[in-house]
Amino acid sequence: VKKITTHTLQKMKSVGEKISMITAYDFSFARIFDEAGIDVILVGDSASNVMAGHETTLPITLDQMIYHASSVIRGINRCFVVVDLPFGTYQANSKEALASAIRIMKETGAHAVKLEGGEEVLESVKRIVAAGIPVMGHLGLTPQSIYKFGTYTVRAREEAEANKLRNDAKLLEEAGCFGVVLEKIPAALAKEVSESLVIPTIGIGAGMHCDGQVLVMHDLLGINTEFKPRFLRQYLNLYEQIVGAVKNYVHDVKAKDFPNDKEQY
Ligand code: KIV
Ligand code: NA
């Protein structure tokens, strides 16, 4: 199999092939997504929400991200795997950021890290890139800053915030990022940024002009049923299907139908 690299992703942008990205947090789903032809798996700090049940991404630790990422790595053979640096492991200074990125690379076998922010984290991005670790940026609605924003609504609708985002995207590219996630910003702004950058943009709620798209697996598969933002296309209703299947199992056990003659030794 031909493994996806940062060069593959850059090439995809240059020939106009859109990049497909999905989150995964464990071995079994990573294997399924790799098999299904996904280009990039993101071990997102959204694990804090969908795996651990926290309200925000803030509580998840570096050790917990490393556990998820190392599980994902054992399931893939073609995908490029990016791991989120969790809140509090890179913001203080670039030395700490590099140390966190190195732990992820050494202890998981992942291919790249992602961190949130622009100018604020530029020194850290440069230092991690200088160590030979590919870095992905993340701008717009950055969930680790949710208490600063106070709301999960669309970002950069105002000109000042849009200008900062344009500038941050350029700075991240210049600092050596191989790509940047644009989360929940107007499609027109995402189009402009995607056209102005050489590196690929990956959108989530950022419209059709991004160079790729990313979704959280639980949202795409309908495991999360409460979360239905406009940007989400839900491809399955796994929640309903699993409830139905498990109800049938409960019924069969209670009815002494399972196991039957053929299902025992
Ligand atoms: O953690 C995550 O799932 C993410 C994506 C939504 C981009 O960062
Ligand atoms: Na994230």
Summed up:
This protein has 11 helices and 8 strands.
Give your account of this protein's structure.
The active site is at residue 183. Homodecamer; pentamer of dimers. The protein contains eleven helices and eight strands. It has helices at 6-15, 27-35, 47-50, 62-73, 94-108, 122-130, 146-149, 159-175, 187-196, 217-220, 238-254, and strands spanning 19-23, 40-43, 80-84, 112-114, 135-140, 179-183, 201-204, 212-215. Strands 1-2-3-4-5-6-7-8 form an eight-stranded parallel β-barrel, surrounded by seven helices. Strand 6 (179-183), helix 9 and strand 7 form a beta-alpha-beta unit. Helix 2 packs across helix 4 and helix 4 (62-73) runs parallel beside helix 5 (94-108). It is globular and about 65 Å long. The model has no long low-confidence stretch (mean pLDDT 98).
What proportion strand? 5-15%
The termini sit apart by 41 Å
Mean pLDDT: 98
Gyration radius, rounded: 20 Å
Bound molecules: 3-methyl-2-oxobutanoic acid, sodium ion
Task: Please estimate the helix content.
Answer: 40-55%
Query: Do you know the CATH topology of the largest domain?
Result: TIM Barrel
Q: Report the sheet with the most strands, covering strand number, pairing sense and barrel closure.
A: 8 strands, parallel, barrel
CATH superfamily of the largest domain: Phosphoenolpyruvate-binding domains
**CATH architecture call of the largest domain:** Alpha-Beta Barrel
How many helical elements? Answer: 11
The top-level CATH class of the largest domain is Alpha Beta
Strand order of the largest sheet: 1-2-3-4-5-6-7-8
Please count the beta strands (DSSP E, at least 2 residues each).
8
Task: Give the overall form.
Answer: globular
Give, in order, the helices and strands: HEHEHHEHEHEHHEHEEHH
Structural class: alpha/beta
